[in-house]
Amino acid sequence: MKPVYRFNPAFQTPQGSPIRELFKYTQQQGMISFAGVYSSPALFDAEALAHSGAAVLQESPTACLQYGATEGVPALTEALRALTRERTGGKVTAENVLVTTGSQQAFELLLRVLVGPGDCVAIERPAYPAAIQALRLANADMLEVPSDDDGMDTEALEKMLLAGARPKLLYVVPTFANPTGATLPLERRRHLLELAVRYQMLVIEDDPYGELRFAGTPQPLLLEVAADVPGGDDWLVYLSSLSKIVAPGLRIGWMSGPAEILRRAVIAKQTGDLCTAPWMQLAAARYLRDGCLAKHLPTIIATYKERCEAMLEALQQYFADTLEVTVPQGGMFVWARWRDGTEANALLQQAVLENVMYVPGSAFYAGAADPARLRLSFATAAPDEIRIGVTRLHAAHGKLKR
Amino acid sequence: MKPVYRFNPAFQTPQGSPIRELFKYTQQQGMISFAGVYSSPALFDAEALAHSGAAVLQESPTACLQYGATEGVPALTEALRALTRERTGGKVTAENVLVTTGSQQAFELLLRVLVGPGDCVAIERPAYPAAIQALRLANADMLEVPSDDDGMDTEALEKMLLAGARPKLLYVVPTFANPTGATLPLERRRHLLELAVRYQMLVIEDDPYGELRFAGTPQPLLLEVAADVPGGDDWLVYLSSLSKIVAPGLRIGWMSGPAEILRRAVIAKQTGDLCTAPWMQLAAARYLRDGCLAKHLPTIIATYKERCEAMLEALQQYFADTLEVTVPQGGMFVWARWRDGTEANALLQQAVLENVMYVPGSAFYAGAADPARLRLSFATAAPDEIRIGVTRLHAAHGKLKR
């Protein structure tokens, strides 16, 4: 007899995530992937990380191997405070820091602490799929705020609020958003924070890509702008991660924000995983303290710049009339839209036969999706591969249209 | 104006956990602690771990530093399968394994997937405090099953089930339980699994200490017994961890069990932390593959044996008439009870003045506590310190009684 388990009805197992489904294709021989958020392995600063990992274990074996405080090991929280000061031009000292097992955990801890079933949470439309997934599992009611090439449309948000929407939380990637690559200009940043204060809506600024700028003018973090908006810093939690600027395998993310919220997040993390691997924390702290990030980051940025340009050029060459493209100033993504009625899901089936892949836009919508949208990542493939990949995409597109 | 956050009402911030409260005392100069589950730093196999960590990063930098599959890196899941075969005398091949960020995460993933507010979950009385805490945060209805020197009283459990209790889950540490140190005999193991099948109750066997046996006869894991009870393996999830036998700082735990349950736990982990730090996973896999655990474990066991004996002797010398003591065959804990009406909480206040500490029994009860109970850990202090600690406890006890 097959056992019948009584699962938690509130834990809705989602339909196979479209991105998970794509994983099987990434293993295909010769595949060129525009799907991943995986940075190129060549960009890992493995030697410096090996040195950091070995040095801290040699110097403080007990601190590396024992349980650590849930909040994070002091050497890392101190280094993250210094990094925050740097990112905000010395303006913000993150007094309260919680180290998390990637920033994904930070987001989920905030949901546990703040969001009950049916609570309203505002997100961008389109938005980061793992955020949508976490909100689904939390049974949150998602309010999709339209966005354009300048990120979330805060005027549209204000109209929704005036019409009575009362999101507890608003989740946003203000710089080089996933999937759109868009960056919120200063006026929208200020507007968003004014709305947060007025409507007592906690803004979660997720900033995994902010340092990956290769064009345009830097915008201040919401975290920095919040310091200038009266009451702003009461309504902002800042999340970031070493995944895109050092290595995802360390699983080091963090949050900073109001003490009352972080205190609860610490309790949720205690029952979650007690603490993030102290050895990894100390290795990361050492890496930062030794200035390795500052030394290595220009290489990552230059590489992404070159790759982005290769992709934009190739897309222009093959799809000038058919594909509308958002030009990013940093990050990992080109967000695009077929002008000729091509459906991104249908094209993907043909594309994998040609050994190229991407993520159809449908993955990024909580509600109804725009079927013509797709996200092309330039993070993983080298410029030559990118050019070949785009010719393959062209071939697939041609075959689909026949 | 102070901001008023709208927290999730279902996330009940617990009153300061009694064990957390004790942390401040552990920092006190000269403190001898019987409170911790921290093994002595001297027991960490730091050199071999340094070698493992360096070797895997050298050989597979990308696998260490990139995101890994949520299920765990193949080298580690394979090593954990081998370890499971060893622990069950070749009887059980754990087909489905999920690597977790400590076994604490494994337990919480199971709660997310299975337990909604008000669902009934059976635990031992007394039980592991972090399990109680996680169940509180999940708003579960806890059914406390009495236990004695042989662990959970399965006859009492059967009576509860006959009387209509319908726990979805039963959480148990069958070998060297925390706090009692008790080990479930074979008949109770079999009985428990028969009840699990009969009442469709999923048993979570948490086995962090099982390999730390220094006396008595080994008992088969519930996991092994389940293979002999018809339908048993449908109703058992096995959790274990490298925290107590290698090092907690790696944050490596795992679960194995029915595919349908693990599949959902993988989805919950995806939104939780994506994956456990691959570098730590690969280092652990290498450590296991190289036979370092087998080489080092006898040292840990011999050390705990010596410390346990030192503690039992000293307690016998100073408290023969006043303290009732459970003699463990392994693990880290001596569970005790004052015969003279001493309250463990009151004594602790006096004890910290004498520079010795322990955990009052009240931390281990979901419901009403026995105030005369206390848990003494022999994991952290060396035999000489243990003897000094017990004389200090004797002094504190004398002063309290005056």
Automatic annotation (TrEMBL), chains A, B:
Spans through the membrane: none
InterPro entries per UniProt: Aminotransferase_I/II_large, Class-I_PLP-dep_aminotransf, PyrdxlP-dep_Trfase, PyrdxlP-dep_Trfase_major, PyrdxlP-dep_Trfase_small
GO MF terms held by the record: transaminase activity
UniProt superkingdom: Bacteria
One Pfam family linked to the record: Aminotran_1_2
CDD domains: AAT_like
Cofactor: pyridoxal 5'-phosphate
Domain (Aminotransferase class I/classII large) ranges: 59-393
UniProt keyword terms in alphabetical order: Aminotransferase, Pyridoxal phosphate, Transferase
Protein name: 2-aminoadipate aminotransferase
Organism from which the protein derives: Herbaspirillum hiltneri N3
